[in-house]
Amino acid sequence: MARIEIKNMDHPDETRTPEKTSMSVVHLGDATVGRYTLQPGWKWSDCIRPVVGGDSCQAAHLGFLVSGKIHIAATDGTEADVSAGDVYRLEPGHDAWVVGDEPVVALEFESKTAETYARG
Question: pTM of the full predicted structure?
Answer without folding.
Answer: 0.91
